[in-house]
Structure to design on (185 residues):
């Protein structure tokens, strides 16, 4: 008898990302790059690779047009995952990735964001660090370069620009913490 095929969470998440973002060009290349980066960081830091890579594959699915409700992709992605029965932990990682709470605040979406658990731990730091070290085309970048490019792309009046005073130091602190640990390992 053939051995049963066991799908990991990361496998299932990859399939969802391919289905929802596979035709999106750079968005999918970025997502695949973040998943690869998350895998490397998880192995290096002794973290739950399956959890981290699953969250990485799913972190930007809220950009997919069938999922758009609020227009803020971390919330829209997390809502979809909750409807589909994904664990609250993974929905929370997606909802709060890369300082989403600061952007949700200026967008007036803090109540909607609070539907999800705020996983403020090393796993969430590493997911954010992976996202902030992979550029829009899936290339490896420095976090400062990525952040500056993002602000330029969104423009000076954007929600991202409005969130900058609190979000930038938050992301810098995460990069400092993760890079410190990487130097120890
Ligand atoms: Fe991303």
């Amino acid at each position: 008898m053939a051995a049963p095929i066991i799908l990991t969470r990361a496998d299932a998440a990859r399939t969802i990302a391919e289905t929802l973002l596979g035709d999106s060009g750079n968005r999918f290349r970025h997502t695949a790059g973040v998943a690869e980066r998350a895998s490397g960081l998880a192995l290096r830091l002794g973290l739950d690779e399956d959890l981290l890579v699953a969250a990485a594959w799913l972190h930007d699915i809220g950009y997919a047009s069938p999922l758009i409700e609020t227009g803020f992709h971390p919330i829209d992605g997390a809502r979809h995952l909750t409807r589909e029965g994904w664990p609250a932990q993974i929905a929370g990682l997606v909802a709060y990735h890369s300082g989403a709470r600061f952007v949700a605040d200026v967008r007036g979406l803090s109540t909607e964001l609070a539907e999800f658990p705020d996983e403020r731990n090393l796993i969430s730091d590493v997911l954010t660090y992976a996202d902030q070290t992979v550029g829009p085309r899936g290339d490896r970048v420095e976090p400062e370069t990525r952040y500056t490019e993002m602000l330029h792309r969104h423009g000076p009046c954007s929600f991202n620009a409005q969130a900058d005073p609190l979000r930038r130091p938050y992301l810098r602190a995460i990069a400092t913490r993760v890079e410190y640990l990487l130097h120890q390992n």
Q: What stands out?
A: Residues 24-184 form a domain with the Hypothetical protein af1432 fold (CATH 1.10.3210).
